Amino acid sequence: MAEPILELKDVHTYYGNIHALKGISCTVDKGSVACLIGANGAGKTTTLLTVFASPAARKGTITFNGEEIQKLPTAKIAARGVAQSPEGRQIFPKMTVLENMEMGAFLRTDKAAIHQDMDYVFELFPVLKERRHQLGGTLSGGEQQMLAIGRALMCRPQLLLLDEPSLGLAPKLVETIFETIGRINKEGTTIFLVEQNAHMALSVSDYGYVMETGRIVLADEASKLLTNEEVRKAYLGED
Amino acid sequence: MVQRELKKLVVYILILAVLVIPMLGLAGRGFQAKRAFLTLSVFAAILVLSFIVKMIRGDEPKIREKGLIEQVTDRIASWPKVYTLGVLGAFALLFPAWANNYMIDVAITCLIYVALGLGLNIVVGLCGLLDLGYIAFYAVGAYTYSLLNLKLGLPFWAALPIGVVLGMCCGCIIGYPTLKMRGDYLAIVTMGFGEIIRLVLNNWNSLTAGPNGLFGMKKAALYYPSFGGEGGFSWGVWYIKSLPALYYFILILALVVIIGVRRLDNSRVGRAWIAIREDETAAELSGVNTTIYKLLAYSLGAAFASVAGAFFAAKLSYTNPNFFIFMESCIVLCIVVLGGVGSIPGIIIAAFVLIAVPEVFRELQNYRMLAFGAIMTIMMVFKPEGLIPASRRRRELHEGEMAPQEETD
Predict the structure, then answer these.
(1) In degrees rounded to 5, what are phi and psi of residue B380?
(2) Chain A residues lying within 8 Å of B128, measured CB to CB
(3) N or C: which end of chain B has fewer CB within 10 A?
(4) Distance from first CA to last CA of chain A, Å, rounded?
(5) pLDDT surpasses 80 at A196
(6) Cross-chain Cβ contact A106/B271 below 8 Å
(7) Does B275 touch chain A (CB under 8 A)?
(8) Searching chain A, which residue's CA lies closest to the CA of residue B284?
(9) What is the average pLDDT value for chain B, to the nearest integer?
């Protein structure tokens, strides 16, 4: 049995008075890929943001590597080795690609290793290397997504949270992105993925959670979810 | 083409007439038709001449021609830095040698505004927080020095650090409650804060002497060892009183501010500020502690204003709440925007343009603000990125012309 790197226990999150997460419990095992699927407004993005305490959970515990982190400020959580590529490719539009990636390594001081990681990201996404002096805002949608993932990788995370990496991308590009996600995982980074594209997400994942209106309604191995009758009907668009 | 150019010419002359006739014609002594129309005809003649030149040159290749300001600023920007700095430095050093007192006085005011503009640039330009009450920190610096000097007899150099610390505290006081605010809301709150400070100064009669203001502060002084006299060794005191001395003093202060802001701009802190401006959530997810960095921006901006304020009070030996009205905050913000948000040379030039130009039009009395408004409007229409855009914004606007800086890595 693999040990969990991230564990959420009965997490409740509110936006003002709106009860967005109503008791989420889930685990991500070290070295695995886990995914969270569900419809719009189910609370997937909120779950990822809650891990980063932005907004912070009002109730429940979040443990990362055995330590509770739900009370820490966002920047401290990032410093522990969690990175997030936020939804809708929130890159810094008026910084160059290079500067964006340097921002990802904001908390690190080991210059040589940063350089090495930059080369690694450029190898994963060669197009970023070509465009490294271009402003982030001038990249195409897919390139911005790559940049968001690359920037998250630059802090050399143990756990990478990806929010909808396939959002608004052409099917071919989605495939490329998911291949890369698989590769990043094989090279040692644990990944927690939030996706609308349930089929894609489940096929790269080891374990999957299905969310509905702020609750987790189904949790199983990804391969089993792929064949699950209900999931197929609700999220994979099959009868 | 001739027709189109001719139409343009007529429109230009009309705009010019609308601007020039009231600006130059209306003076205290009534309508000065002769002066207004004389100036207008000179300007119009220049336009007609340029029209004729254009006609003679005929249809040159139709590349978009760069405007005059753009040409000049581009030329300056492409000069080797050493020459530019050398010429500017020599000019700044020799300026009091040939300028009259009035000009030196205006130059001092300009340099104060350079310091203010650069301080506000940290808050608005780098961190992206719109601050409409910035002049309040200037007031804090001025009043701190005045009160400490008048009530406790502290000299300038002892009062300065206290003023800076107080200014930074005020920066945090306005910064903390507005951490979650953005854009318009932040602008309103900061504007209110600026007015609160002014009203407190205006109404706290027992301490600040209200609208009468405080006067009689000592000038800043330099101390030198003196070995003559009866008691053997003592410290000699030389007050910085004459205009050229004050000029050099503020020049040094402005240089310190310029160097300080430059170093901040290129530092990790500067990068974090830009990240916050660009996307606060993403900055936070990258590990930037947005609370601390925002407060740092406010307090550092306030510190620069505070230094400028202390100098201002020491120079005049007088201060009163009406120096710190909302209009002043606006002017400083205009300097930042006109110069090019985030651009240090731009802000320096803009400070001189915005402070010196109304002085040039001084004889028009109230109408000089009209010139101010006209310049601002024209600038924002034709060069929205500022006089000398920061390299970041330049890159944004001239994408294709940017050569990659490092080919091998």
Answers:
(1) -70, -30
(2) none
(3) N
(4) 35
(5) yes
(6) yes
(7) yes
(8) A75
(9) 81
Quick check: B279 pLDDT over 90?
no
Cβ neighbours of B396 in A, within 8 Å:
94, 135, 137
Cα–Cα distance for residue pair B179/B310, rounded to 1 Å: 28
Separation of alpha carbons B389 and B400, rounded Å: 16
Cα distance between residue B128 and residue B178, in whole Å? 13
Q: What is the token pair recorded at A226?
A: 């792929």
- Report the residue from B284, B396, B405 with minimal CB separation from A94: B396
Name the 3-class secondary structure at A77. Answer: helix
Q: Give the integer Cα–Cα distance in Å for B138 and B46.
A: 43
Could you give phi then psi for residue B27, rounded to 5 degrees? -130, 175
Of B284, B289, B405, the CB nearest to A54: B284
A130 at the B interface (CB within 8 A)? no
CB-based contact, A56 to chain B, within 8 Å:
no
What gap in Å lies between CA A30 and CA A43, rounded to an integer? 23
Three-state SS string over B31-56 comes to ECHHHHHHHHHHHHHHHHHHHHHHHH
Does pLDDT of B94 surpass 90? Answer: no
What span, in angstroms and rounded, lies between the C-alpha atoms of B342 and B351?
14
Distance CA B369, CA B382 (A): 20
Domain A1-81+157-165+173-239 has CATH 3.40.50.300: yes
Name the closest residue on chain B to residue A102, using Cα atoms. B271
The highest-confidence range among A140-144, A212-216, B114-118, B261-265, by mean pLDDT, is B114-118
Instruction: Dump pLDDT digits (tens) for B134-193.
Output: 999 999 999 999 999 999 988 889 999 999 999 999 999 988 888 877 778 888 899 999
Q: List the single best residue of B277, B285, B394, B409 to mutate versus A (max A Cβ within 10 A).
A: B285
Tokens of B392: 């970041």
Read off the pLDDT band of A3 (50, 70, 90): confident
Cβ of A95 within 8 Å of Cβ of B395? The answer is: no
E-state strands within A120-225: 159-163, 190-195, 207-212, 215-221
Distance, CA of B184 to CA of B131 (rounded, Å): 10
pLDDT digits (tens, 9 = 90+) for B328-366: 898 899 888 888 877 888 888 888 888 887 777 666 666
What is the per-residue pLDDT for B230?
66
Three-class SS state of B320: coil
Tokens standing for A206? 């080891």
CA B259 from centre of chain: 16
- Which of A90, A97, A107 should one mutate to test binding to chain B, selecting the residue with the greatest count of B CBs within 10 A? A90
Report the distance separating Cα A2 and Cα B27, nearest Å: 86
Across A63-76, average pLDDT: 88
What are the boundaries of each domain within chain A? 1-81+157-165+173-239, 88-156
| Cβ A230 vs Cβ A218: under 8 Å | yes
CA A51 – CA A74 distance, rounded (Å)? 9
Whether this model's pTM surpasses 0.90: no
Q: Is B113 helix (H, G, I), strand (E, B) or coil?
A: helix
Q: Is the peptide bond before A55 cis (omega within 30 degrees of 0)?
A: yes
